[in-house]
Amino acid sequence: MTEYLIDIKDVTHAYQTQSGPLPVLDGLNVSVPEGGFAAVVGPSGCGKSTLTRLIAGLMKPDAGEVWLHGEPVKGPRATVGMAFQNPVLLEWRSILKNVLLPLEIVHSKLSRREQEERARRLLALVGLEGFEDKRPSELSGGMRQRASLCRALIHQPEVLILDEPFGALDAFTREDLWQIMHRVKEEEPFTGVLITHDLRESIFLADEVIVLSGRPAHTQYRLTVPDTGPRDLDHLYTPEAAEMLNVLRHQIEIAQGRAPAEAAE
């Protein structure tokens, strides 16, 4: 029996608005095994970011349960790291000190020297060696996003949540960061959840793609990405990748109401 590190069971949630409740999730079930990497795609506004907040313990569902490592999530967890589309780096701190910021909040067994050594190693891993003393404004958007990724990993989280972290970057920078993500996961094992609108990104980074339905969202479709060993960008131009992208595009059309639901597999 598969052990799931992330297990979301029959979660329902609605936001309260002036005109009444706005249902966002309806009986959602999502599970990710330890060490797995799931990408979540779906129509805009279907509740993808709500899902990340529930996993992180930043909010509670109206019904259903969210479990991490066999324990119900009742509040923010130190074992979760998060990176967003906006890196939100503090301009008055150097890149190194920005990366170290979570360790001022989360308890660490590492000494101050070990913390700094770890931060420098992470920065080197993503190609930012030599930029430790720079300010965020001195870095490009892609470089700031790399620093944000290091900050999310500095406290060695079990779970890494990526909420469209590459969405605002140009195509070349985005593809470069996709390849860096594979290197990072090899060196810094974690269980990952990626929220994205980019179907190519989903099949390149994840080992499973979860398609959410239109709002209120449920799990409409799951696509397993075959493990073919180390991935490079050439993988996106294979017949297998083209077939997966066609399947996902069709599922998104179903979720958007542009294709008949009975066509879903």
Give keywords.
globular, 31% helix, six-stranded mixed sheet, 7 helices, 265 residues, Rossmann fold, four-stranded antiparallel sheet, alpha/beta, 10 strands
Account of the protein in words:
The protein is α/β, with parallel strands linked by helices and 265 residues long. It is built from seven helices and ten strands. The protein has helices at residues 48-56, 95-100, 112-125, 141-153, 171-187, 199-205, 239-255; strands at residues 4-17, 20-33, 37-41, 63-68, 71-72, 80-84, 159-163, 191-195, 208-212, 219-224. The strands form two sheets. Strands 6-7-8-3-9-10 form a six-stranded mixed beta sheet, with helices on both faces. The chain has a four-stranded antiparallel beta sheet with strand order 2-1-4-5. Strand 9 and strand 10 (219-224) form a beta hairpin. The mean pLDDT is 90.
The CATH superfamily name of the largest domain is P-loop containing nucleotide triphosphate hydrolases
Helix and strand composition category: alpha/beta
In terms of DSSP E residues, the strand content is 25-35%
Low-confidence stretches: none
Describe the biggest sheet? Answer: 6 strands, mixed
Query: Mean pLDDT, as a whole number?
Result: 90
Highest-level CATH class of the largest domain: Alpha Beta
- How many DSSP E strands? 10
